[in-house]
Predict the structure.
Amino acid sequence: MKAVWNDTVIAESDDTVVVEGNHYFPESSLNRDYVTFSNHKTMCAWKGQASYYSLIVNGELNPDAVWYYPDPKPDAEMVRGRVAFWKGVKVGA
């Protein structure tokens, strides 16, 4: 699977976990050249608190486009150490 934004591969892996229709990539597959800090956080009732990264590709910012669960609740352990994408990031084979 690949995560692509602004014609650039952000992450690529054969090892994704699908939860609620979202592919969670290993965090190690994330190309850190395009990732920047975000202080955005949200809460999921069953997964716990999500943290976010923003993307910068070719000078364009995509705020909070990557999310992850640094300390997921027990029922969501399968997403620990993984990242997922939204906000126009295309995920596909």
